[in-house]
Fold each of these.
Amino acid sequence: MTISIRSVEKKFGRYPALNKVDLEIKDGELLALLGPSGSGKTTLLRTIAGLEFPDAGQVLFDGQDVTFASAADRRVGFVFQQYALFKHMTVAKNIAFGLDVRKGKDKPSKAEIARRVDDLLKLVELDGLGKRYPSQLSGGQRQRVALSRALAVQPSVLLLDEPFGALDATVRKSLRKELRRVHDATGVTTIFVTHDQEEALELADRVAILNKGQIEQIGTPDQVHDTPETAFVCGFVGEANSFEGQVGGGQFTAGSLRLPAGGVREGSATAYVRPHDFVLDDGGFEVRIERAHVQGALTTVNAVAQDGRPIEISASRAEAARFQGTVKIAARKAHVYAA
Amino acid sequence: MAAVSHRKATDDPLWAKVLVVGTVMAFLALVLILPLIAVFAEALRKGLGVALEAIQNTDALAAIKLTLITAAISVPFNAAFGLCAAWAIAKHEFPGKPLLITLIDLPFSVSPVVAGLIYVLIFGLQGWFGEYLVDNDIKIIFAVPGIVLATVFVTFPFVARELIPLMQEQGTSEEEAAVSMGAGGLYTFWRVTAPNVRWGLMYGVLLCNARAMGEFGAVSVVSGHIRGLTNTMPLHVEILYNEYDFVGAFAVAALLCLLAVVTLVLKTAVEAAQPGMRGRSGH
């Protein structure tokens, strides 16, 4: 199922949640909507689901206009951050809900529903837990139930709103893999909302980055990380040192720091340098090392430039010994944006 | 050593605890337990037989019957209304919502006597619809319909007040989940919303019932105090008392107290059946 969002606008009172958003989602892709809170990512997801309706613009499913179709008619599977499982129903009843609701010849037989529930429980590795109630499950298990409940109706698109937000770090990591596996097994077009860039970059085929109700950039995880198109994306995706300075003569200057800035408009600008893009270089500028701290395979270095600006550097474990006293560094790569 | 390890930073000194708990206990004993004992003691002063006889008197039986009828009509009505109102307020946005919330609280803030007078003004002989009602031989004031109306008015906040915070706390995501899976509005309400609030509803109904049976002020204004016809139990107690029939008055009063005790026991049972019903965190 391909999904097209065409100049969708949505206001809550006077606050614009979505401001002329355009987005094309390919069939079978796993897309992340990434952004800070209040960026409009959840509103966009709910608009696709039919839980919110836009003030202007269109939502198309496979070219069909579904802008004002109900959530039920769109055949979407929706997974909520707080699971939204039906507390008074067993796990099996929860998963079967979307099938039990059907009427007449659309409704599968009891045996067929039971078989589907069993298959889904196996898919999310919860076999044998069908008779439990949601309150008897852990957070991770509840979210797996929510996932299989959403999949039970064989949705044309699976939508997940911060699906791992309420879980602790270990469970979150294993559920991420789970979602990827389920997506690959079912091939269903999947969109998930997250504010966690690590999650988006690890899991998604493509990432759409939202800010203030607009899409700043959409691309593969590598594209948004390595060639950010806007200052916001650069600052939001991946770690980055940011510097306020001036561009002149193809060069960015901020105190003693100099960076190449070809093609950037002259005047004040912001530069971003990833910690791993700083390297020891005798031709570079001088920094004083405050602390070099080895963590696993990496060394994280806290340095201070001559004008007192803090700089974070990431190097290999083997290089830790070389970051001592005063050293000269240079940036292999910098992203400079005119202010 | 062992005693010290149990101390917490928020613990108060022993004398303070004794003072606070003691004050509360003494107060409760004085205003709640002592009167309760007095009611039963007075009722049984001339023996159980006399008390039972007082309850089986025709007028007393008529009062009990009327009270039960009144509750049987007003409680289901208010349960339905309360459920609708709470559902509308907690799960939906619409213009005039703050006004509706205020209106639901009105019976709590208005004196019951005023509540009764409102109906006399509307349906009484000199009231707005007085002439029409007389012409068509419809009796509301000084008759059962008036008593039911006054009771409904006084008791309608109980269920709604109980359910609104509960429903608000549960949010709308379960309903959204149901709708996204193809469930219609009614199906969602009966299968998802209602089961989530059933204990709260039960609790509200119990409180509503207790008040419906015990209401005095509003009912007193509209009833007309016709023995055997428009006397409810609380009104009957007053009449008997004013006629110096203390055993009779206290016997009927004791019956009302028993009802309160039953309500309390049921309420505790409801809370025990659903641990953490109040302030439960939705998951």
Amino acid sequence: MARKEYSFYPGCSSERNASASNYMVSVQSMCKTLDIKLNEIPDWNCCGASIGYADGGELPRHVMNARNIALSQKHNPGQDIVATCAACWLGTKESVERLSKSEQLLADTQNILADAGLKVDINKNTASGVRHMVEVLIEDFGYDELAAPVKKPLEGLKIAGYVGCQTNRPFGIDGESFENPKYLDKMVEVMGAEPADKYEQKVTCCGGALAFSEPEKSQAQIKEIVESAYDHNADMIVTPCPVCQMNVEVYQEQINKTYNKNFNMPVVYYSQLMAVAYGSSAKEAGLDGQIIRSKKLEEIAEAK
Amino acid sequence: MNQTTSVSDPSPVEKYRNNFLKEVEANVEEGDWVKMCMQCGVCSGSCPLGSAWAHPPQELFMMIRAGQREEVLRSESMWMCTSCYSCVVRCPRELPIMHIMHGLANYANRLGLAPKMNPTKRFAKLFWDNIAATGRVNESRLSIKLYFMNGLVSGIKTAFAMRKVGLGMLKTHRLNLIGFFRAGGIKEKNQLQQMLNKAYEIEDKRKGLS
Amino acid sequence: MTNEVKVAAYMCKGCGLGERLDTKLLVDIAQSEGGVSICKSHDYLCSSDGIATIRDDIDNQGVTHVVIGACSRRSKTEAFNFSATDAGRVGAADEATKGVAVARANLREGVIWSQPDSDDARELTQDMANDYVRMACAEAKFMQQPVADPERGANKRILVVGGGISGITAALESAKAGYEVLLVEKTAHLGGWTKTFHRRLPAKEPYAHPHDNDIDELVNQIEVAANITVFLNATLTKTSGAPGQFSVDITTESGATVTENVGALVQASGFTRYDASQLPEFGYGKSPDVVDQIELEALAKSANGPNGEGGIARPSDGKMVESVVFVQCAGQRSDKPGHLPYCSGYCCNVSIKQAMYFKDQNPDIDTNVIYTDLRTPGNSEDFYRSAQLKGVVFTNGTVNKIEVNKIEVNKVGTEGDQLSVNFHDHILDQDAITHADLVVLATGQVPNSGVDIESKIPDANDRADNTAGQSAQVKVSVESILNLDYRQGRDLPHLKHGFSDSHFICFPYETRRTGIYTCGPVRRPMDIVQSIEDATGAAMKAIQAVEGAAMGRAAHPRSGDLSYPSFRKEGCTQCKRCTVECPFGAIDEDENHYPVFNESRCRRCGTCMGACPVRVISFENYSVDTVGQQIKAVDMPDEFDEKPRILILACENDAYPALDMAAHNRIEYNAFVRIIPVRCLGSVNLIWVTDAINAGFDGIMMMGCKKGEDYQCHFVSGSELAHERMSKINDTLSQLQLEPERVQTYEVEITDIERVPKLINDYAAKIDEIGMNPFKGF
């Protein structure tokens, strides 16, 4: 019997050979150390993401999320749904809120789900049962318990905690502010590294899906995010969000061309820091998945 | 195409009446919040792409009140939303501004008024078609379609410009070309598609769009 | 001064005084230089043992004056109160139970807490303490413990002028507190404007809907109240006397006059509706469909049913209104001729309320409020939100013009007016037109405050001259409300725009005539809810005034002070300065132009004392001598000691507390200053400046409150007068070959805790620069 057990919603980007597959690898290592059992929701579907608004509208998006919740309630009864992706968490939680507020929306949804033999239970506790992995770590474990298994403190690293948007707004982590959330810095500290606590771009938007459709505008944002990390002498950026990770990491070379910069800033997930600190190898921490490799972190991982 | 309000030219639509506001309230996601805006402008100032909006949210709300239906629905502005939720958490009146922007874009899209060539609109369609087909995002199909969105020549150029990004993703096993040929996705694809179709149907009927 | 003066001094060693100062030396100075009969030191003077020591000397040694060398006079006021009546206790204080006068040497805040605790500083610190002991001993000898004015009046009836919502509230509140009330109303009925309103603004949660107008119920309460006498169709034709003893002539339309005695007055004379015919650009007067807010109330009230269920009809043709535009700030917040320059404040809420009249009756009616700044303070924000929820549209814009056209009969079938509202939308930055069945102009309130005495200082009975002499642009009522029989004019002084003058921050209901309080729109533009609160406050102040007057106590800010000015008639030159300069009109003149002090009207600021060129005016505990002797008591080092001396005369209301608080924060300042608190800078008599220069002081700093239109002076014009007087001293200084910098005047706020020490240090540096007073040692 594992210490904690959750109904797991990995999300599309976490799939094998997808953009956040390295995130998934590190999450599995981290969960192994913390003795967390993740029961994947069978046949989960996409949350619709934020950009789904344009063609998805309201009801279709809520139906997609309601299907996942219904499947979770059916196969993993009584377990909180945990997502590692900010958009998955947000989309699911938002649908719960909207369905609980509108009787008509809920009735329509149930009507549609019924065709597939599904039914969703939306009650006052449903929304609080949809959680982000970071939320679980902080609330169900706490910083002290997260610190306990640290074998290799990440000493000598200075890390800029880039929280981004959707893990932070509109729900965020309980007790944190929207303008200056501290939890990522605390987690960095707990893992033995030094947080760049004055990093002023920690909640700046990376452009999200507009990185594809409006690359110049989006890259202008990313430039600020990376540049500030350099200004604060950070060795790397850490983030809890797959979209943030990808946008901030992969466009650095294009930004270098456009703005005549020399960026080469690694962008890692909190779970990768934790996996390394807990003694995982670079591969187990998914560090081989970085386009901009973090040599310093790899060195710690490979050190005996 | 765009109508401008002119003092000398009395418009057939009575401006500064509630006609369009009422339409927005009925048909736009969270549209009944529009009337609660107090015109402070915090949303416009908080938007990361604010300067790129021809009409920032505050202004769009006023245009709705002023009855500027065409200008609002044909606007590129809402399509600049990155879904960062800054406006939502900062609005002193607690308007779900981002959702209203999404709702307006969606409504304009369904009415066929949204700007045809808007890149975000087009990417959004690719994305939705992609997930609606299999139930999950197929990133390789999505990116290749995105590159060729503007035609073959432009697509090759884009792909060339993005080759390093693509190569990096491929090398780190975060992108898989086989995915382009293998659909992947959920098991109950048909079931999901039926559900989505029914959802469209119900929603269109409710909004009088069918 | 009474015959037997026996001064005792007590030096405290607590709070670090014993460690920082040579207490024995202080005791010696008090005895040898201060000439006190008894001088003792105590480890903690404010302890019960210390107090008992002092009391014992008073009771058994015949001590009449006490010098306390301890903390600031603002600290331990209860402990060091040796007056006959204990602090806070209400009771008669007459000659038989007279207490002892107390002078305080501020050794704690004034010396050890504002000076560095170092061996280097020890000598200068001790010099300061020595001087403060000398000064306190000198002050004590010239002080008397005051006793209440024997001429005080004890009438406790309260007269309320005006029978609108403010007056009604003031009357009911006073009556409920057990006071007899006379309510004088100019018209034939009570209720004022409020009676004409459909509904009123909400006063309690959820602040979401218009509230029933309950004015009839309030009028009924007045009519049945046993202790309220109502005079309808009546005005005040003469008001004379003072708090506790006013005499008022009430004249009815018929010409019959009764004279009544009252203790205090509440003036609730309300407002006159702004004349919207001055706004032709908005179509007012061109179409009956353009109305002001008061007319809209009447339309709503006359619509069918108590909630206007029948809907509001367009006046021009009786068609039901389907669209209405509210124009905010109509003729307000504007510099155009004939417009009100100020914001009336309540009109945003009223338009919101009136828009709800339409929306509550029929949600399909288009209601558009065009505003530039919506002002909905406090809970009104909820009211605003509620209106938005009801579908009232708010447009940020400025209305430029409203065009009125006749609608063609064949097109619409009626002969109503078509109103085109031309405005600039500030959000969309475009000119726009919207059409409406009805336009409501949010015009403001003009106060009914009577004759502005300061537009021209009137001589007696100059009403006709005054009227003729008014320039066209100065809008001043010529109809007096109070008809005061005062030296300084027939009504309350105005602040600006005709609103009555009061100390807005500290004493909002106080006017510049003691015992007369204003409330409601005569004080500032306000709505019913605000007027009710305002009137309640004014009633409380009136009650306080009659009770205080009966005991001979001063009103604010020297509440409870029993002293009052007296003058030596034989020295008086009938120069009239005191009667003109008294900020409160307390001093009249007799037929020979000698001042006649109305002690109960006096606020005890001492402005008259400061004004008097022959120094014949004094208070028992504050006089030319009590300060002058302190100045002379300072031990003046000679020119070669390199120890300049700077005298600071600091207003006790703001500057002195700021200095005390600076000391509490251990902010240090120059050791060469000697500070004397004054009641008001207006009480500073020029002789003190001369005394100080003659005594060898090298510079004089005078610290008063902010003056001018946004004055902070607790006595209204004291600071202004002092600045004025001191500006004239420059001539004298230059005649004496003295630099004008030797006498400087400052405006200091109570919050200037860090600024005041800096001012002192900068000034000390300046004195260092210009050198010592050449008169030193002469």
